[in-house]
Specification:
The chain is an alpha/beta fold. The chain contains 14 helices and 10 strands. The strands form 3 sheets. Strands 7-6-8-5-9 form a 5-stranded mixed sheet, sandwiched between helices. A 3-stranded antiparallel sheet has the order 3-10-4, sandwiched between helices. The chain has a two-stranded parallel sheet with strand order 1-2.
């Protein structure tokens, strides 16, 4: 009687099983690699500052170049993360750490939204003044020097207090909380839009009047109106939640905003399955500070419509985005 070596039969079975598993995985991979994006529109939200509007049109036109359908919807810049989480809009292209990090993190904790990666751009969002103001208020950019000069920034609207011109209310910058926490003699007045900020800045500069307002980078303003950010007490993570952080032990928001904040992309968790090619491109997309500033400049300075600005930016930067969609 001839006995088969027990490992021979077992080995053949393992090989067959392994081959079957490999073929199955290969078929699954082939299926996903060949999957086509849905014909349903990718819904891109539009907010109320021009870099975001132009960038949204840039990416939307890239997706259309790939054969996708795209729709744009006007969406609140804080509520958008809940909209992405629920799939009502598909993605968000400018998640600023300082302005929207809390809303983004809250949505991430609930589920349904994914972090699609960071841009190369580094952000900063804070109080800012044009450079001629430094001559009118010695000691700038120190916040205590600014506070000592508060009367110079007073307007009929603010009485004896200085005026800080903040961004739109929905940007939720907590400027009044900072004023209160640091005991500053300033009143926060919110502009209705980003365009209103720049109009006030241009008017003040023309008259040579002191102004301090909310600004951010990347932004076209840096090239048109040189200036500097106010230096508040050093930023500490958690300063907005923990009174023990910052110089005032009884208050939050008593420190600067992040000086080197992130700029992220976010997406509905179903995007990767429904529009796999577009999602793969979204993960690759990474704009720099100069690129984003140029997008905003095309509207704010060159006065193009956002869709025209996007087309012009794409035509001038094919070496940047063609690699992403290929």
């Amino acid at each position: 009687m001839t006995l088969k070596h027990p490992q021979t039969t077992l080995g053949a079975g393992l090989v067959a099983t392994a081959n079957s598993a490999f073929i199955g995985a290969l078929l699954a991979f082939s299926g996903s690699a060949l999957a086509e994006d849905s014909s349903d529109p990718i819904i891109i939200p539009i907010h109320n500052w021009n870099s975001q509007i132009v960038m949204s049109n840039v990416v939307g036109q890239m997706f259309e170049e790939m054969g996708n359908n795209v729709e744009y919807v006007s969406t609140d810049s804080q509520a958008v993360y809940e909209s992405v989480r629920l799939g009502d809009v598909t993605l968000e292209l400018e998640v600023w750490e300082g302005a929207f990090g809390a809303a983004f993190n809250e949505a991430m904790e609930k589920g349904g939204i994914v972090d699609a990666g960071d841009h190369d751009a580094v952000t900063r969002e804070d109080w800012w003044y044009p450079d001629y103001v430094a001559e009118l208020c010695p000691g700038l950019p120190d916040w205590e020097a600014l506070n000592a000069c508060s009367a110079k920034f007073a307007t009929p609207e603010t009485g004896d207090s200085g005026r800080f011109l903040g961004g739109p209310v929905d940007w939720l910058k907590h400027d009044q909380e900072r004023v209160d926490a640091l005991g500053m003699d300033f009143t926060v007045v919110n502009a209705g839009s980003a365009s209103a900020l720049w109009a006030e800045l241009a008017a003040a500069k023309k008259r040579g009047e002191p102004i301090v307002l909310f600004n951010w980078t990347p932004n076209f303003i840096e090239a048109v109106h040189p200036g500097a950010f106010i230096e508040f007490p050093e930023y500490e993570p958690g300063c907005a939640e923990d009174p023990a952080l910052g110089p005032n032990p009884d208050a939050t928001y008593d420190c600067a905003n992040p000086p080197n904040g992130y700029l992220k992309k976010a997406a509905w968790e179903g995007m990767a399955e429904k529009w796999p090619s577009a999602y793969a491109v979204l993960e690759k997309i990474s704009f720099t500070n100069p690129q984003i500033a140029e997008m905003a400049k095309l509207v704010d300075v060159d006065e193009l419509e956002p869709e025209e600005a996007a087309a012009e930016w794409l035509a001038a930067n094919e070496d940047v985005w063609k690699d992403w969609i290929n």
